[in-house]
């Protein structure tokens, strides 16, 4: 009884230490990627923090000193000055680095995280060291996912602070709209979901091909294809609003235009007539009104959440397929 009681806690302690040891080994093995990720987050966050504070203040002071905030600004206000250029560069760095994240994540996950281990036999060696294939794959997915989501949400929150704090500067200059690709993706939950989808797709590519370079290439191709597909689908993920105006008014101004054109007296939708200021041109073409199907700013979160759900579904499907594939290849060892 005493011997059995003594062995049980030891076995329990050994089993509980295995996940910790696996995660530490994973961090040591991919410490270069970890340092790169921390550096990327630090640079993006630093750029956005500077833009939120002194960058925005200097850009607005320069703008007002030039008299560009007056009812009749001069022609020089069409081009930003040095302070405005620095501000825009900082914002571009912060958003651009996060925009590259899905591509970098997919390439790393397919090549270094999975493909290299499968090609070199490191994965098979790990499976013989009391680490099951399922636990190995779970660690490969869970730890990067945690780091990716934490860092991405940090930059996203900073960008939302920037977006809400520079409304006056953004409003007068009209640099960015809420539905622009870079702004829309980084201002909500999509950026983190993109990173998770890229991670899962890269892992699946690595398990399928078991070669570093082919897995890297396929993962990049899958991530790029998914990004382009969702960019095209985004306007149709939520019901649009339709506005009808007279020919001298621009419909849907300030929103994400999905479709626009002209209306005839019978209500038929036609393309804009080729009118360049000719009198009675619209009447000659039978045009009575203009229309626009568009998303107003109030559709930001519905569009965000639907696209996020699609990305998370892709990530879950790819991860589930990876586990099924690993079980079939390793059999009872999973």
Provide a concise account of the structure shown:
This is ABC transporter permease. The protein contains twelve helices and four strands, in the order ααααααααααβββαβα.
What does this entry look like structurally?
- By secondary structure, the protein is an alpha+beta fold.
- The chain has a domain at 26-226 and 314-333.
- 69% of the residues lie in helices and 7% in strands.
- The protein has 12 helices and 4 strands.
- The chain has helices at residues 2-29, 31-65, 82-99, 101-120, 122-127, 133-165, 167-173, 181-186, 190-209, 212-233, 281-284, 300-330, and strands at 241-245, 256-264, 269-270, 287-295.
- It has a 4-stranded antiparallel sheet.
- A hairpin with a 4-residue loop joins strand 2 and strand 3.
- It is flat, with a radius of gyration of 27 Å.
- The relative contact order is 0.11.
For the largest beta-sheet, the strand count, sense and barrel status come to: 4 strands, antiparallel
Number of helical runs?
12
Measure the end-to-end span: 33 Å
Order of helices and strands: HHHHHHHHHHEEEHEH
Organism: Streptomyces hawaiiensis
Transmembrane segments: 34-53, 90-115, 136-162, 182-205, 212-230, 308-326
Keywords: Membrane, Transmembrane, Transmembrane helix
Protein name: ABC transporter permease
List its salient traits:
7% strand, alpha+beta, 334 residues, ABC transporter permease, 4-stranded antiparallel β-sheet, transmembrane helix, 69% helix, transmembrane, membrane
